[in-house]
Amino acid sequence: MASLPRLLPNLRVANGVQSAHLSHDPEVVQAYDADALQHRRISARLACYMAEGGRHVLSKATAWCVPTLLLWAGQDKLVNPAGSAAFAAQAPRDLVQAQCFEAAYHEIFNESPELAAPVFARLEQWLEQQFPAP
How far does the signal peptide extend, from start to end residue (predicted)? Predict the structure, then answer.
């Protein structure tokens, strides 16, 4: 796969995204399917860039120096949640706060209301910690 971007830089292949795996909220899935701007293809170049980028970030986890909130979906079927869990386990705990939302699909902020509410609450909590009111 690593040589594909060099040999066929404009090659686009099916991305394999099944919209039903985005969210438990049927309206989110329907909106995605109806979106004229979404397409179901990905270039070999982008796929390689994403894979290499993920490995690179994971290799730098122990030296992470930016306050970060890492939230991810435990039932993500579009990306492997293990990458987020591995980063969280290696990153400095004083800088990186991490939480997996076990029941959620990929679009954690566009989940059904009962699944999205704790995600937004966690984000709000972190933002208030980072930027306290005067």
Answer: none
Helix, strand and coil percent figures for the chain, each rounded to 5? 50, 15, 35
Q: What is the mean pLDDT of residues 84-107?
A: 98
Cα–Cα dist 119/124, whole Å: 9
Q: What pLDDT sits at residue 1?
A: 59
The span from the CA of 8 to the CA of 11, in Å, is 5
Instruction: Go through the domains of the chain in sequence order and give each one's CATH number.
Output: 4-130 (3.40.50.1820)
**What is the phi/psi pair of residue 109, to 5°?**
-85, -10
Q: How far is CA 9 from CA 42, 56, 84, in A?
A: 11, 22, 28
